[in-house]
Amino acid sequence: MFAVICTNTDRRDRLPMSQREEPEGGHDWTKRARLLQAKLVSRWAEVYG
Question: What terms describe the molecular function in GO for this protein (predicted)?
C-alpha cells in the first residue's frame, strides 16, 4: 500500500472557508492527480512486477 499526497497549504489557507472543500479547479486537478497515480502504478508494475 502507498499514498501520494500533494497539497498547497498556502493556497488553501487563502481560500474562503466556503471553497476549501471544493475549490475552483479542484475537479480538474483531481483528474490529473489520478491519471498521474495510474501512470506511476503502471510503470512500477512494468519495472518491478
Answer: carboxypeptidase activity
